[in-house]
Write a structure and sequence with these properties.
Elements (H helix, E strand, L loop, with lengths): L23 H4 L8 E5 L2 H4 L12 H5 L18 H14 L4 E5 L2 H4 L9 H16 L3 E7 L23 H16 L5 E6 L1 H6 L7 H28 L2 E7 L3 E3 L5 H24 L4 H7 L8 H7 L6 E4 L4 E5 L10 H5 L1 E4 L16 H13 L5 E5 L9 H5 L2 H19 L4 E7 L18 E3 L8 E3 L1 H16 L3
């Protein structure tokens, strides 16, 4: 077992702290006693240890080392060094009242080439992470795939994009999932197969068919893993398993305009229903079938049986809503996903914008949850990511993150409003536990409720006031459920 390094935690001189009030819905007892408040991360964005512990390369290990791909030349080689610092990071969570932690397993740390054999050093790392979480009263929630494809699966004789291999990829993924269930399922009771399949289906693929092929393979792979869990592990382990989808609420620009209303529904169908309709109804939305035609894959009878009902819940990553008008695609334009979608997205002028340029409007989260309730038979839902990126040029600005505090207040209250209106919401997780490597944006984009001092040799952690605010919410929730 490797020696553990403990993160330095410092206090920063800040302005007098005046935190927002606890959301009224929390005080009113809208959140059930078994509601899971937590925080989220993903392996590549925080772990580091890229050449340690027998780990294989992921596609992000390779991609980030191509000059010019990541802002400022940043990589996840070290990231937040949670590979070494997780014991003290867990202590921070526990001290701040966090009782649920969503993280991802790096497939390439467990199976360096994407297939057997299993790397025992990687297993030891995740075993100790899980054990220390539980020892500190924190429930682990585990994502199996959060953008970390083992790079070996992209090399000849395999296809450069493994999701295009419907024949082999479901087997590769389900074998990995099977191993994770066997290794960790005695303690992990909350599983997520894929994180945001919309993103890896649409961004970075080729041609007018590939997005639909990638998504189809992901859906079948998800269902295959769920089938293995339910048949082989559920009777003894008694956990739950689902999929994480990113979506926004789609508001028609003018609710009295039929074209705007139809465009907003098309947004939902092509973004959200693309993955949920097969799971609930056995096929893609009719609007997709009508628009995409033969380019949209067809489920075989065996696949329909496998896919339909293959989730215990839907997990949602929500950051912002859209205001929708019809798109401007022409019949003569080449076929592609965006022509098929054919909507124009925007934000209401009164919504402030985040560092990412996304419109801030918490009511969109409430309305997305109510849409899910009404459209998908009130399936249990989790908010697995929700948070605010804000420009923070120094640690003082980061700690005094008043916009993020208000963002959290408003969005937690929006979840409470959805609960009051009958939505079966089971959990809410902040993105992110720490500032981390935000993919192509590198370390310059700050979503975290902890600042990382990247100039310090120990990557000093500094708690932001948004984390202090979240702690007050957790304390108020604990009191409310005792009444």
């Amino acid at each position: 077992m490797k020696a553990f390094i403990f993160a330095a935690i410092v206090a920063v001189a800040v302005a007098a702290i005046k935190l927002p009030a606890v959301p009224k819905t929390v005080l009113a007892g809208a959140f059930p006693a078994d509601f899971d408040f937590g925080v989220s991360t993903s392996s590549y964005q925080v772990e580091g240890g890229w050449l340690e512990g027998g780990k294989g390369f992921s596609v992000w290990d390779v991609y980030s080392h191509i000059p010019g791909q990541i802002a400022n030349g940043d990589t996840g080689d070290v990231a937040n060094d949670m590979y070494h610092l997780y014991p003290s990071d867990i202590k921070i969570m526990a001290a701040q009242g966090v009782r649920n932690y969503r993280f991802s397993i790096a497939w390439n740390r467990i199976m360096p080439t994407g297939v057997a054999p299993i790397n025992q050093e990687g297993v030891d790392y995740y075993n100790d992470l899980i054990n220390q979480l539980i020892a500190n009263g924190i429930e682990p929630h585990v994502t199996l795939y959060h953008s970390e494809m083992p790079s070996a699966l992209t090399l000849y004789p395999h296809k450069p994009l493994p999701f295009l291999d419907l024949e082999n990829f479901p087997t590769w993924f389900s074998n990995y999932a099977d191993a994770a269930f066997e290794l960790f399922g005695d303690r992990v009771k909350h599983w997520f197969t894929f994180n945001e399949p919309f993103c890896f289906s649409v961004y970075g693929v080729y041609g007018n068919e590939d997005p639909y092929t990638v998504a189809h393979t992901a859906i079948v792979s998800h269902a295959t893993a769920v089938d293995i869990y339910r048949k082989k592990y559920l009777p003894k382990q008694q956990g739950t398993i689902g999929i994480v989808l990113n979506s926004m609420h789609f508001y028609p620009n003018d609710t009295s305009n039929a074209a705007d209303v139809a465009a907003a529904q098309r947004g939902y169908d092509f973004w959200y229903g693309w993955f949920l309709d097969p799971i609930f109804k056995g096929d893609y939305p009719k609007t997709m079938r009508d628009t995409v035609g033969a380019r949209l894959p067809t489920f075989t009878p065996e696949q329909i049986k496998l896919v339909k009902g293959s989730t215990d819940f839907v997990a949602i990553n929500y950051y912002f809503p859209y205001v929708i008008t019809p798109g401007t695609a022409k019949e003569t334009d080449p076929d592609d996903f965006y022509k098929d979608l054919n909507i124009t997205t925007g934000y209401a002028p009164e919504w402030p914008l985040s560092q990412t340029g996304w419109g801030i409007y918490a009511t969109g989260l409430r309305d997305l949850l109510l849409y899910t309730k009404d459209t998908y038979n009130n399936i249990p839902t989790y908010i697995t990511e929700n948070g605010l990126a804000w420009q923070e040029d120094n640690v003082e600005e980061a700690v005094n993150d008043t916009m993020r505090q208000q963002y959290l207040h408003d969005h937690i209250d929006a979840v409470g409003q959805a609960l009051q209106q009958g939505a079966d919401v089971r959990g809410y997780f902040i993105w992110s536990f720490q500032d981390n490597l935000e993919w192509n944006s590198g370390f310059q984009m700050h979503f975290g409720i902890i600042w990382i001092d990247r100039a310090s040799a120990t990557l000093t952690r500094v708690i932001k006031n948004s984390f202090r605010y979240y702690t007050t919410v957790l304390e108020a929730f604990a009191k409310a459920i005792k009444k």
